Each structure stands twice: as C-alpha cells, then as structure tokens.
Amino acid sequence: MRALRVLMIDDSPADRLAVRRALERDEERRWELESVTSAEEGLSRIVAAPLDVVLVDYHLPGMTGIGLLRELQARLPGAVPAVVMLTGSGNERVAVDAMKAGAQDYLVKETYSADRLRRSLKAAVDTVRMTRELEERRERAEHAERAAREALAVRDELFAMATHDLKGPLQIMAFNAQLLRRQLPQGTLNTSQESRLEHIVRAAHRMGELIDHFLEVTRGEVQPLRREHLDLRALVGSKVHAMEASARHRFVLREEDGDFTGDWDARALERVLENLLGNAVKYSAPGTTVTVLLAVEPGAPVDRIRLEVSDEGVGIPAEDLPLVFERFHRGRNVAPDISGSGVGLASARRLVELHGGTIHVESQLGRGTTFTVSLPRGLPPTTSVPDASGANPATSPQ
C-alpha cells in the first residue's frame, strides 16, 4: 500500500512531535510526514510537488491557516490537496471558516487522539479523491454528450444533403416521363407502354416521399397521422400486385371473410406494407412464396385487423430477434451484398404503434420469417396517440 504524504504546517515543536509519533505508530498504513513552521514555507512546498494531505495550524506567524487555504484555492484551483485544520480551542467560528475555505475537517489540539488524527487525515484524502473522480466523470460525460450532439448534427446535415441530391434525379425522371407522354402523338403508345410511363411517374413521386420519410426517421421525427376511411383489402391487394410485377417470387394473398375497412393513415400503412413485402422479397430466394394474410380479430371496444407477411427466406438468428425493430440494426446473417439501411422495421413499428397497433416477428433460421401486424379498426373514445413533439394529446379519426 502506498504511503500517504502529509505536510504539517505548525510552529510548535511539541505539536509536530506528537503528530509524528501518532503516524509512526499506525500499524495499518504507512505515512510520509514533512514539517514546516510557516504558512509561506508550506505554500511553497505544496506548489512545488504533489501531496495527499496538509495538516495546518490555524494560528501561524504571519499568514493564518485560513489565509493559506484561500491562497491555495487561488493558486491551485481544482488541485488543492486535502486539508485538515488544527485549532487551539473548540472555537466553532474557526471551524466554520476553515470548512468554508476548503478544509475537509478540523481537530482541536487539546482533545484529539492519535486514532482520531489518523482517521481524520485518511477521511480527508478519501473525500478529495472521490470528489475529483466524480468531477472527472462529469467532465467525461459532458465531453461525450457534446461529441454525440456534434456527431448527430453532422449526421443530420449529411442526410439532408444526401436526400436533396437523391431527389434531384427523381424529379428529372418524373418530369421527362410526363413530358414524353404529353409530346408523343395520341395513339403512339399502346396501353402497356402508357401504363409503364405512369408507373415511372408514380414510382418517382413515391421514392421522393420515401426519401423524406427516411430523413424523418433518422432524425427521430414523427409526423401526426392523417386518418381517413380506408379499405385495407384494396391497399394490400394493390401493393401485392405491384410487387408481383417486379419480383421473381410467387405471391399468395389469403383473406378470411370480413370487413377490412377502418380509419387509418393510408400513406403510413403503405410504408409498412412496402417494408414488410420488400423485406420478404429481399431476404428470400427467387421462386419462393411470399404469403400475405388478412383476418378480422373481433374485440372490444374496437375490432382489430391482423395482417401477416410470411416468407421462405434466410430467417433471423434468435439472438437478433429482440433487436429487429431497433434503428440501424441488421441481422448478423445478412449477406454483405444485400443492401439496407436498418431503419425500415423501426419506422414500420413506429407507424403501427401510432395507429394503436402492435407488430411482432417470428422466425426460424433458414426456414423463413413471419411479421404480424395487429391494427385497431379505429380509435376508442379515450385512446390517444403521440404527436410529432412526443406529447400525447387525445386525437380522433380525421
């Protein structure tokens, strides 16, 4: 155990001897004691080299012990060693002044014992050490927080620049497709070509919306829902049909008998569907089957609609399942050549939960994955959803 370095500042030879004997007789700890007789000498010694604790007499020739403490605070801000004040009487005013000036403890010369002296010095050292450790931790935490804020600001700026640059070519594509359709003579394009041009325009506009949504998600922003009466059967059928036209997979849409209308945000649910269907295609081999199920779950105070999207793909490792809805997380078994940002499922969960619904996943590695969304048909009278600011005002279907 390292010896504790003590500087005693006292002009009384008897007091210096008593302290030396008390420390030499300590059987549990080693002490290194130095002595000086004036505050000026003590000040020079403290500034010259590190010490663990200073034992200083209040009554000194010239500068008092309180004056020494105040001078130390001025010269060594944040680096003053532990200090224990010695007084010749039980004067409470002196004790209060000493503590205010920065001392950790005080001892009355006529009454303290050797054990009390050692405990006081050790406690003073421990107090200063803990105080400094806490201050260092606080400074490290503040530094880390500043660095995190700066990193987030840079990230947001980069995302904003990237989304702006991505939307430029999309706008050009949409504009030229619309211009081409208007400039070609009537009857030049057959029905299939006309439909493909229309698909280009719609896809470009949709991609622009998704880019805006990606920026919202990465910034942690939430836009309030715009509810309208919607037929989920029609929306799901449209999205499945669009996926069939571009993917090399077999799609099966199963619908149990029932009413699939409700008060939902169409654009929000489009994003959820596009993400779930897109993932099913992305993480399963061409020629495999993607199954979509719609069912009604009767309940009170409102019915719920269950939407399931199942694939026959690579599956998700069990250790990754609890994290699939976390932003920027991707499964460890995802091949490097499979693109993705890791924000899609986090966005899907947020949009589902804004509707008062739930989403969960079941998966077997190498055999496929099923995502299940449960949506209330509408909002109960007392239900509320968060707004963009994170508050929770009551809302009603619009």
TrEMBL record:
> Which residues does this entry mark as bearing 4-aspartylphosphate?
57
- Biased composition of type Polar residues is found at 381-398
Keyword Membrane found = no
Task: List the catalysed reactions.
Answer: ATP + protein L-histidine = ADP + protein N-phospho-L-histidine
What Pfam families does this protein's entry cite?
Answer: HATPase_c (PF02518), HisKA (PF00512), Response_reg (PF00072)
UniProt-listed Enzyme Commission number(s): 2.7.13.3
Enumerate the spans annotated as Histidine kinase domain: 161-379
InterPro entries, alphabetically? CheY-like_superfamily, HATPase_C_sf, HATPase_dom, His_kinase_dom, HisK_dim/P_dom, HisK_dim/P_sf, Sig_transdc_His_kin-like_C, Sig_transdc_resp-reg_receiver
Kindly report, in one word, the top-level EC class recorded for this enzyme.
Answer: transferase
- Alphabetical list of SUPFAM superfamilies matching this protein: ATPase domain of HSP90 chaperone/DNA topoisomerase II/histidine kinase (SSF55874), CheY-like (SSF52172), Homodimeric domain of signal transducing histidine kinase (SSF47384)
UniProtKB keywords: Kinase, Phosphoprotein, Transferase
Entry-linked PROSITE patterns: HIS_KIN, RESPONSE_REGULATORY
- Gene Ontology molecular function, alphabetical: phosphorelay sensor kinase activity
Annotated region Disordered: where?
A: 374-398
The answer to keyword Phosphoprotein applying to this record is yes
- Residue ranges annotated for the Response regulatory domain, each copy included: 5-124
Protein's recorded name:
histidine kinase
Give the organism the record lists: Pyxidicoccus fallax
